[in-house]
């Protein structure tokens, strides 16, 4: 073997192939060209996510993809995103579970009681417009970017964990390897390259819709126009930028 | 990754009841963060007690004035250590001074701490001891002479004018110091009270409750230290002093209990969405440390005991009662801090379940380190007492020649 | 030497305004030195890009953005596998990304010969989405594993890139198994689906485009359940005279509500 087959060479060879013209006609050129060092201007974007609760099937693909994409520790105590299952029984009892964050899916409902309604809810950092975690960080190691994403500066974080305490959503954890706070970044390294966040990419039912706030015609804006939207814990006045359609009142 | 830590999280997973967010299995603020407000409270309390003597001229507690100042200093030196030890990156702690986030309650810690340490406590102690330091130095040799020279910053002026200025300065600093002490511990309460995500912490009363319990803990600590040091020095503690301390402690306890009760009743009456999980928290996880230790043993018990202050019991018995009451208060205040810090992390922010905290013995955040950090201030205090004896008999009187022939530097007119 | 120092001190003292305490000057000097030193040091140590855009290091944005994606995105897959993507994007799996089933494929995209993505095997990967769970949304295709052709691999009948079954289902229960199970233990068990639903034949090929008809009037239920109604004695081979059919007066019962606002037709005795 000796030399590994590199993608560029592979493509170059492919282009000599008659089928290549069809390929470029279908999907190729825009994407191919855009990948070549185009500059990214954060002031031209403002990101948000929509989650349609009625579309989530609780497969856990998003949780798995997030862990793989972002090198989140495997152990079931560290999640940038996870899926919860809500089961409301006819006697009024509400049971919530999220076995290993839902990464391996869910077992059948354990109770024999009659179920009134039941559904899945994906959770992640809400990238609040008014983020309590940023407010409390003593050194400025967590912050909101110009394009509306809340990030952690892992090289500057002192590991005091005040931000973890201040987050009403349990979206943050202390990375046991680096001893700094960690959380969802909306896959900042992907969205700035024009890709979707990993969880959105792999969601098989489009329960997760990623996009930008503003007047562009995007799936997110369409969803926000057509759905009754709710955010988590609105009384906290954190102004989340993860919007839920068909959210049940039991979800906290 | 630390396998022991993971094993601990695994076992915590088994103790979860109801539903908690998956990231909440790890309890973030350990016993070290319990110790931090406990120590800071003692500092603020001890200082406020010392101020009583100076500002409000409570003559009875005069013997404890310097002792209280040194106690405050000893505990203030140790107070930031548990915070430091708890950081994920202790070596980056200086960033708090480098780029403090003005919006962060915690970032202000550095400045409140520095203000209190440098501007209030050290200055007050310096002015208070300066004349004595100068006079002690005259009859000393070797190391102690050097230490006293260093602490007095080479000062030599003990003229009546200079000493009078010292007294005024102490008075002035104390007046600044009282609001500063309020700030120091009120601010610690604010760190917790301002976390809106946590219904157990989020309370506007938190800073005031913290402050009151600080005063309680400070008075009882000074009482304990005064009593014990008197015994160690084979001196009889002054009964009038102990009586006054006991009375103050009793009043502070009653105010503290009233505030706690107000907080409790207010929560119960407002009955917000968190009330069910907080009820569960109190009934299950905190039944021992809150109901029994904090309220019964740590507050109501001492109130009953200290009522003996107004009885006609013999002094020996009263002293014993005060001592026991002050000890119980310390236990109670420690569990108050525990119930706030640990209690606030035992339930999920989903308000649907609870987790457990297992105190480790060893390790950076274990019991041994905690005990060490609780003993350390007493060692520092012992050293401080050695260097700056706070006792009445150590105080110096102006020597006859000082007033008559002041040092040349002290009186410019003499040179001119 | 001492004399000289004393002399200097004397001069300094003379410069001082009268009665200004010496200890204050000593302290002032020390404070000034400390404050200036802290200020200078602070300037020295603040990270270069701190505070440019806000209270944070701008460099941290770049380091967050610098990570390499591991999921390439389906458009990347389509560059080579355009045929499969084209089929998939017209099928029921059009919303499913390649990497949902095949795993992260950036490595493969960069080095297609050496690194291969996962090819799912067996029934388990399909069941992750299509195994029956009560919490899954109504209408999402689900099977009960033990009942749906046990042991046989899913790919034997369904092409994962176009999962529409090659053969038309014979029974309604093939897709609507939740309803089939519910009704089988209810009082309506003897009734065939066609009693209440008219099903256009195209429904079995294009279920969404050709929906079955549902009853829309109280009177439809009334044909059996109204007082004085005379239901047929036999329906699809079931002898209805064997059953005691509950009767209600349609003019008073239920007010302005239609029957299915309170009763679930597939299990009418349930609440």
List keywords for this structure.
heterotrimer; B: about 425 residues; mainly alpha; two-stranded antiparallel sheet; 16 helices; globular; disordered C terminus; C: about 270 residues
Elements of chain B, N to C (H/E)? HEHHHHHHHHHHHHEHHH
Structural class of the secondary elements of chain C? mainly alpha
Helix content of chain B: 55-70%
Structural class of chain B: mainly alpha
What does the radius of gyration of chain B come to? 24 Å
Structural account:
The complex is a heterotrimer of chains A (252), B (416) and C (271). Chain A has 252 residues and is α+β, with helices and mostly antiparallel strands. Chain A is built from nine helices and eleven strands. In chain A, the strands form four sheets. A four-stranded mixed beta sheet of chain A has the order 9-1-11-10, covered by helices on one side. Helix content of chain B is 68%, strand content 1%. Chain C has a two-stranded antiparallel sheet. The mean pLDDT of chain C is 88. Chain C has eleven helices and two strands. Chains A and C meet through helix 1, helix 2, helix 3, helix 4 and strand 2 of A and helix 3, helix 4 and helix 5 of C.
Quick synopsis:
Chain A is α+β, with helices and mostly antiparallel strands. Helix content of chain A is 24%, strand content 20%.
Provide the fold topology.
The complex is a heterotrimer of chains A (about 250), B (about 425) and C (about 270).
Chain A lengths: L6 H9 L4 H7 L1 H7 L12 E6 L8 H10 L10 E9 L4 E4 L17 E10 L7 H5 L5 E3 L5 E3 L9 H5 L6 E2 L6 E2 L5 H4 L6 H5 L5 E5 L6 H8 L2 E2 L11 E4 L7
Parallel strand pairs in A: 1-11
Antiparallel strand pairs in A: 1-9, 2-3, 2-4, 5-6, 7-8, 10-11
Chain B lengths: L2 H12 L2 E2 L12 H25 L9 H14 L1 H7 L8 H4 L9 H31 L3 H10 L8 H34 L12 H27 L6 H32 L4 H9 L3 H20 L8 H27 L11 E2 L12 H21 L12 H5 L7 H4 L1
Antiparallel strand pairs in B: 1-2
Helix pairs in contact in B: 2-3, 2-4, 2-8, 2-9, 2-13, 2-14, 3-6, 3-14, 6-7, 6-8, 8-9, 9-10, 9-13, 10-12, 10-13, 12-13
Chain C lengths: L1 H14 L6 H24 L13 H7 L8 H7 L1 H7 L9 H5 L3 H5 L13 H7 L46 H8 L8 H4 L21 H8 L8 E2 L2 E2 L32
Antiparallel strand pairs in C: 1-2
Helix pairs in contact in C: 4-5
């Amino acid at each position: 073997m000796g030399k590994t087959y590199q993608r560029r060479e592979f493509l170059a060879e492919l282009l000599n192939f008659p089928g290549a013209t069809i390929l470029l006609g279908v999907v190729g050129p825009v994407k191919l060209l855009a990948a070549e060092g185009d500059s990214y201007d954060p002031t031209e974007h403002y990101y948000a996510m929509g989650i349609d609760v009625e579309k989530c099937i609780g497969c856990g693909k998003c949780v798995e993809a997030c862990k793989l994409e972002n090198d989140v520790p495997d152990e079931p105590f560290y999640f940038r995103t996870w899926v919860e299952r809500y089961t409301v029984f006819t006697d009024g009892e509400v049971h919530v579970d999220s076995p290993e964050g839902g990464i391996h899916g869910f077992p059948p409902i354990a109770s024999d009681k009659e179920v009134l309604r039941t559904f899945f809810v994906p959770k992640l950092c809400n990238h609040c417009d008014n983020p309590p975690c940023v407010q409390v960080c003593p050194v400025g190691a967590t912050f909101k970017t110009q394009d509306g994403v809340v990030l952690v500066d892992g090289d500057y974080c002192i590991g005091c964990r005040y931000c973890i305490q201040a987050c009403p959503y349990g979206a943050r954890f202390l990375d046991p390897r680096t001893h700094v706070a960690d959380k969802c970044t909306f896959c900042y390294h992907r969205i700035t390259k024009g890709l979707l966040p990993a969880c959105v990419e792999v969601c098989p039912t489009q329960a997760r819709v990623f996009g930008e706030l503003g007047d562009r015609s995007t799936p997110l804006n369409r969803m926000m126009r057509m759905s009754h939207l709710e955010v988590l814990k609105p009384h906290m006045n954190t102004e989340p930028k993860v919007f839920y359609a068909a959210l049940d009142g039991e979800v906290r | 990754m630390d396998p022991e830590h993971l094993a601990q999280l695994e076992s915590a997973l088994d103790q979860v009841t109801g539903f908690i967010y998956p990231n909440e299995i790890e309890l973030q603020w350990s016993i070290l963060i319990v110790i931090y407000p406990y120590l800071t409270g003692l500092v603020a309390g001890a200082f406020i007690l010392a101020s009583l003597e100076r500002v409000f001229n409570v003559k009875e507690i005069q013997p404890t004035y310097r002792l209280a100042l040194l106690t405050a200093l000893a505990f203030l030196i140790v107070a930031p250590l548990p915070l430091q030890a708890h950081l994920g990156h202790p070596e980056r702690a200086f960033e708090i001074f480098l780029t403090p986030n003005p919006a962060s309650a915690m970032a202000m810690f550095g400045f409140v701490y520095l203000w209190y340490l440098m501007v209030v406590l050290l200055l007050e102690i310096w002015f208070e001891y300066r004349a004595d330091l100068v006079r002690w130095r005259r009859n000393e040799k070797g190391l102690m002479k050097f230490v006293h020279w260093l602490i007095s910053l080479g000062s030599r002026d003990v003229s009546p004018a200079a000493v009078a200025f010292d007294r005024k300065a102490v008075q002035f600093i104390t007046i600044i110091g009282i609001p500063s002490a309020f700030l120091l511990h009120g601010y610690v309460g604010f760190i917790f009270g301002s976390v809106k995500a946590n219904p157990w912490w989020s309370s506007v009363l938190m800073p005031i409750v913290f402050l009151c319990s600080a005063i309680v803990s400070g008075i009882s600590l000074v009482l304990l230290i005064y009593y014990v040091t008197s015994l160690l020095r084979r001196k009889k503690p002054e009964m009038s002093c102990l009586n006054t301390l006991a009375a103050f402690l009793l009043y502070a306890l009653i105010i503290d209990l009233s505030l706690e009760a107000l907080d409790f009743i207010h929560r119960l009456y407002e009955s917000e969405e968190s009330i069910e999980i907080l009820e569960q928290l109190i009934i299950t996880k905190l039944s021992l440390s809150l109901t029994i230790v904090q309220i019964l043993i740590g507050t109501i018990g001492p109130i009953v005991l200290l009522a003996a202050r107004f009885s006609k019991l013999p002094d020996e018995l009263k002293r014993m009662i005060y001592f026991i009451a002050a000890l119980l208060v310390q236990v109670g205040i420690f569990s108050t801090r525990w119930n706030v810090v640990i209690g606030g992390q035992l339930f999920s922010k989903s308000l649907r379940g609870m987790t457990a905290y297992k105190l480790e013995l060893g390790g950076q955040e274990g019991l041994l380190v905690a005990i060490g950090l609780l003993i350390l201030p007493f060692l520092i205090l012992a050293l401080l007492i050695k260097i700056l004896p706070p006792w009445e008999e150590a105080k110096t009187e102006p020597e006859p020649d000082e007033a008559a022939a002041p040092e040349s530097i002290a009186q410019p007119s003499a040179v001119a | 030497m001492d004399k000289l120092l004393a002399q200097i001190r004397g001069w300094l003292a003379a410069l001082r305004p009268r009665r200004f305490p010496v200890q204050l000057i000593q302290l002032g000097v020390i404070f000034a030195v400390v404050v200036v030193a802290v200020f200078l040091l602070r300037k020295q140590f603040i990270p270069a890009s701190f505070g440019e855009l806000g209270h944070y290091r701008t460099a941290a944005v770049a380091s967050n953005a610098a990570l390499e994606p591991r999921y390439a995105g389906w458009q990347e897959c389509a560059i080579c596998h355009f045929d499969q993507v084209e089929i998939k994007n017209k099928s029921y799996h059009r919303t499913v990304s390649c990497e949902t089933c095949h795993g992260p494929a950036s490595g493969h995209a960069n080095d297609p010969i050496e690194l291969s993505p996962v090819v799912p095997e067996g029934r388990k990967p399909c069941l992750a989405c299509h195994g029956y769970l009560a919490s899954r949304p109504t209408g999402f295709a689900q099977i009960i594993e033990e009942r749906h052709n046990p042991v046989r691999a899913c790919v034997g009948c369904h092409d994962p890139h176009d999962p529409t079954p090659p053969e038309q289902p014979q029974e309604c229960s093939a897709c609507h198994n939740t309803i089939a199970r519910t009704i089988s233990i209810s009082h309506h068990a003897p009734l065939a689906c066609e009693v209440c639903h008219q099903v256009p034949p195209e429904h079995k090929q294009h279920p969404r485009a050709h929906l079955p008809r549902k009853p829309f009037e109280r009177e439809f239920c009334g044909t059996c359940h109204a007082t004085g109604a005379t239901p047929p004695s036999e329906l699809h081979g079931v002898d209805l005279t064997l059953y005691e059919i509950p009767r209600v007066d349609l003019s008073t019962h239920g007010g302005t509500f239609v029957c299915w606002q309170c009763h679930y037709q597939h299990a009418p005795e349930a609440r």
